[in-house]
Amino acid sequence: MELEDYRNLGDYDTFAFRTASATGASFCAGTLLGAIAATWQDVPVVERNQSLPALKRTAKVMGSYGATFAAIGGVYAATDCLAERLRGKKDLFNGVIGGLAAGAVIGLRAGSLPYGLGASAAFAAMSAIVDAGGHVVRTPVERSFLPYSSETENKV
């Protein structure tokens, strides 16, 4: 099976599906990270007229992280798809363009141009590295790669 066969996703390769799935997955990852980050922050002082202040603060942090990650993932996927459609190619530069746009989201969120430029460069570089590696993080497990033969060699 060729590498392009792994990338041919059929009906799952639409603009809407890729953007929605990236946004949803990023929101879930951000919410989980927000829950972890909320445990490291100071617990708010308990006030008489406020119920469950720690839970409310945790939910606020989780929502903030989730929204930020969702925006980054959604913008990356949408820009990647848009670049692919406009250029008519599926290559490494679509992801680089998406990484630049995703980094701009971080710069807008932080309110800092240098921070946004650095994040854009980091996202673009990471996307280029992943795309140049062929989207593969492990070696294929096919019969030719197995350390043993699939057929019995000693047939009597």
Automatic annotation (TrEMBL):
It is found in: Membrane. The chain crosses the membrane at residues 20-41, 61-79, 91-111, 117-137. One of its GO terms (biological process) is protein insertion into mitochondrial inner membrane. Pfam families: Tim17. Keywords: Membrane, Transmembrane, Transmembrane helix. It is a multi-pass membrane protein. InterPro entries: TIM22. GO terms for cellular component: TIM22 mitochondrial import inner membrane insertion complex. PANTHER family: MITOCHONDRIAL IMPORT INNER MEMBRANE TRANSLOCASE SUBUNIT TIM22, OUTER ENVELOPE PORE PROTEIN 16-3, CHLOROPLASTIC_MITOCHONDRIAL. This is NADH-ubiquinone oxidoreductase subunit B14.7.
